[in-house]
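Review box. Two proteins, two foldings.
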Amino acid sequence: MSVPGIGYDEVGTRTRQAWLRTSLTVIGVTLLAERGLMLAGASFIVLLGTLIPAGVFLVVAVRRLREVTHGESVHAAGSVPLLLVVATLGLAVLSVISVVA
């Protein structure tokens, strides 16, 4: 018998959902930065370069989604947090540039 108001909570599923939500946010921010750069008249090379941070983040997210199994969330390798910080800072800088440009 289940207790009303308490949903299913499993660490693997929760971790996968967090990565998926964050990935959707990264895609949305990247699209907005691309739009800002297009409206500012940026070159095609710059627009392609803007996709690099999001690409790095999404590759890491897919790797993590494949590592997470039902019932457990394995700790990320040492290089993963560094890659994510670099990708996030890169995306933040490109977003600011797209607003200012």
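Next protein.
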Amino acid sequence: MKKHGLLLPAALCAAAIGFVLRLLQLQEAAQSGGLPEGGGWIILAAWSVLFAAFAVFSVRKIPEKTAYNELYKNHLLTTVLSVLAAGLILAANVYPLLAADGIAPAELLFARIDSILGIAAALSVVAAAAALRKGAKPGAWTTLVPTLFLLVNLVLNFRRWSVDPIALDYCYKLFFSIASMLGVYYCGGFLFDKGKRRVSAAWCLLGVYFGGVTLADGGLQHCLLTGGLMLLLMFNLIQLLRAE
């Protein structure tokens, strides 16, 4: 395994540090202007910028490949990651359907659309894993459905987050949503044999990092979905970084 094979462990270590920094930031009292009283938010912001620069710089020398069969291989570890990812994504989207009491009709409609797409995305991940397990290329729909779900999920969440005047309350969730959506989108390009290995790896690394940071925010549904997407991005990273 070449040096770029160490990028995933580096992202996980950076995410663990970011998780701790986020926890410390959330414990700081807010000033009248909305910013936390301590300087924890500055440290986390600086750490995030450093990791983002590291991720972008580190993928520059990875040999570029475009075809699915050049990178994606059947391995037990990646199959397990895919199944676990699908299970968490499924649980995250079934939960809102079971806890829909007290929600306004319009919001309930949006939530149900989001959940149905999420369930379809989870099934797509399982279908892709099953195809790869058989040595076949998954169908294009197995990447189009998750991408559509993440796009809709991002729009609906930002609609809710943007009401909060304090950007620090949601900015890391926003960064994670963007990174995970683009990570899945660019990795999907390999199913059309038009993949961009470096760009895909960079977005997946950023998704793993920001996902780890936002786990500190808590919330059952958020943690289930974030955990599932992190595992999905890790599955892709292992495939992208393992080969020469």
